[in-house]
Amino acid sequence: MPSVYQLKSAFSDLLRPVTNRLAALGISANQVTVAAMLGSIMLALALYFGELQLQISPLFWLCVPLWMFIRMALNNIDGMLAREHNMATPKGAILNEMGDVISDSALFLAFAALPGINIPLLVILTLLAVMSEMIGVVAVQIGASRRYDGPSGKSDRALFFGVLGLLYAVGIAPGIWSTLVLILIIILLLVTLINRAHSALREVQ
């Protein structure tokens, strides 16, 4: 099954001039990684508590697809800074992996504030997303490459939640349809877990 991750190479080419400019300004890969993580946490808190306590306008949830796109760009930029501008460090590798997991978890769980969302399924999805990234990293520990196999990678999940935020902003509240989609994403995440484990084992053999 195709994954949004497969578009990463073309997206990186578009971002390379920006990346080169940031490198020239002395911006490090780690600074970009931390900025993406902090931005995700702050947006998640604003959405969650704003929805529950302040009754913010649904239009505020348009920030989700916008930020998901920006964060995807930042994730590409920090990787290119590390690879192409000799900024790769052990600290950066830890920040990158932990930053992605923390950012994803915060943004996904912010949707628990929406009326009609199935919170148990949302929590299960979030846990499986963390597990899928953990398996990707464990692959390196057993001698394989970092696994990004789909069909539900980081970019695919970001696309789903971006669309969910967009739909809520324009007046389409979560309900039976969102529950069914959450179940579908969970199934795809289970397939992703199997694919990444199988690919890693096959690679070391």
Summarize the structure.
The protein is an all-alpha fold. The chain is 75% helix and 0% strand. The chain has a single domain, classed as Four Helix Bundle (Hemerythrin (Met), subunit A) (Up-down Bundle).
List the helices and strands and how they pair.
Layout: H1 8-24, H2 29-54, H3 63-84, H4 90-110, H5 119-141, H6 154-169, H7 176-204
Give structural attributes.
205 residues, mainly alpha, Four Helix Bundle (Hemerythrin (Met), subunit A)
Average pLDDT: 91
What is the approximate shape? globular
Overall helicity: over 70%
Integer tally of domains: 1
What does it look like?
It is a single chain. The chain is mostly helical. The protein has one domain (4-204): CDP-alcohol phosphotransferase transmembrane (TM) domain (Four Helix Bundle (Hemerythrin (Met), subunit A)). It has seven helices and no strands. Helix 3 (63-84) packs antiparallel against helix 4 (90-110) and helix 5 runs parallel beside helix 7. The mean pLDDT is 91.
